[in-house]
Amino acid sequence: MTKRDEGFDKDETIAGVEERVKARFPEAAPEMVHEEAVVAVDKYADAPVKDFVDIIAEREARAAVADSLTTES
Protein backbone atom coordinates (compact mmCIF):
# COMPACT_ATOMS: atom_id res chain seq x y z
CA MET A 1 0.00 0.00 0.00
CA THR A 2 1.32 3.42 -0.93
CA LYS A 3 1.36 6.07 1.74
CA ARG A 4 0.45 9.55 0.60
CA ASP A 5 2.33 11.71 3.08
CA GLU A 6 3.49 14.26 0.54
CA GLY A 7 2.39 17.70 1.61
CA PHE A 8 1.09 16.63 5.02
CA ASP A 9 2.52 18.65 7.88
CA LYS A 10 0.88 17.74 11.18
CA ASP A 11 1.69 21.04 12.91
CA GLU A 12 0.51 23.06 9.93
CA THR A 13 -2.71 21.02 9.79
CA ILE A 14 -3.36 21.59 13.50
CA ALA A 15 -2.76 25.33 13.07
CA GLY A 16 -5.18 25.49 10.13
CA VAL A 17 -7.88 23.56 11.96
CA GLU A 18 -7.38 25.71 15.04
CA GLU A 19 -7.60 28.94 13.02
CA ARG A 20 -10.83 27.94 11.28
CA VAL A 21 -12.48 26.71 14.49
CA LYS A 22 -11.49 29.94 16.30
CA ALA A 23 -13.06 31.96 13.48
CA ARG A 24 -16.27 29.95 13.84
CA PHE A 25 -16.33 30.15 17.66
CA PRO A 26 -14.58 33.37 18.73
CA GLU A 27 -16.06 33.05 22.22
CA ALA A 28 -14.33 29.70 22.82
CA ALA A 29 -11.23 29.58 24.99
CA PRO A 30 -8.11 29.41 22.79
CA GLU A 31 -6.71 26.55 24.89
CA MET A 32 -9.83 24.46 24.33
CA VAL A 33 -9.80 25.12 20.58
CA HIS A 34 -6.12 24.17 20.39
CA GLU A 35 -6.64 20.97 22.38
CA GLU A 36 -9.59 19.87 20.25
CA ALA A 37 -7.62 20.60 17.06
CA VAL A 38 -4.69 18.51 18.32
CA VAL A 39 -6.93 15.61 19.34
CA ALA A 40 -8.78 15.61 16.03
CA VAL A 41 -5.65 15.78 13.85
CA ASP A 42 -3.83 13.18 15.97
CA LYS A 43 -6.72 10.80 15.42
CA TYR A 44 -6.07 10.74 11.67
CA ALA A 45 -2.36 11.60 11.44
CA ASP A 46 -1.43 7.97 10.78
CA ALA A 47 -4.07 7.40 8.10
CA PRO A 48 -2.60 5.98 4.90
CA VAL A 49 -4.19 8.75 2.82
CA LYS A 50 -4.06 12.21 4.31
CA ASP A 51 -5.89 14.21 1.64
CA PHE A 52 -8.90 14.89 3.84
CA VAL A 53 -7.40 14.91 7.36
CA ASP A 54 -7.81 18.67 7.67
CA ILE A 55 -11.47 18.58 6.65
CA ILE A 56 -12.39 15.65 8.88
CA ALA A 57 -10.36 16.97 11.82
CA GLU A 58 -11.95 20.40 11.49
CA ARG A 59 -15.45 18.90 11.58
CA GLU A 60 -14.61 16.90 14.69
CA ALA A 61 -12.92 19.81 16.45
CA ARG A 62 -15.81 22.11 15.56
CA ALA A 63 -18.33 19.64 16.93
CA ALA A 64 -16.34 19.16 20.14
CA VAL A 65 -16.01 22.90 20.72
CA ALA A 66 -19.70 23.48 19.97
CA ASP A 67 -20.61 20.71 22.38
CA SER A 68 -18.39 22.17 25.09
CA LEU A 69 -19.86 25.63 24.64
CA THR A 70 -23.38 24.21 24.80
CA THR A 71 -22.70 22.33 28.05
CA GLU A 72 -21.07 25.42 29.59
CA SER A 73 -24.18 27.55 29.06
What is the CA-atom radius of gyration, in angstroms?
13 Å
Total domain units: 1
Averaged pLDDT, please? Answer: 91
What percentage of residues falls in helices of 4 or more residues? 55-70%
In the predicted model, the low-confidence regions spanning at least 5 consecutive residues are none
What is the straight-line distance between the termini?
47 Å
- Percentage beta strand: under 5%
What gross morphology would you assign?
elongated
State the major sheet.
none
- Total number of β-strand segments? 0
If helices are DSSP runs of H or I spanning 4 or more residues, what is the number of helices? 3
N to C succession of SSEs: HHH
Q: Helix- and strand-based class?
A: mainly alpha
Structure, explained:
This protein has 73 residues and is mainly α. The protein has one domain. Helix content is 68%, strand content 0%. The chain has three helices and no strands. The protein starts with 9 loop residues before the first helix and ends with a helix.
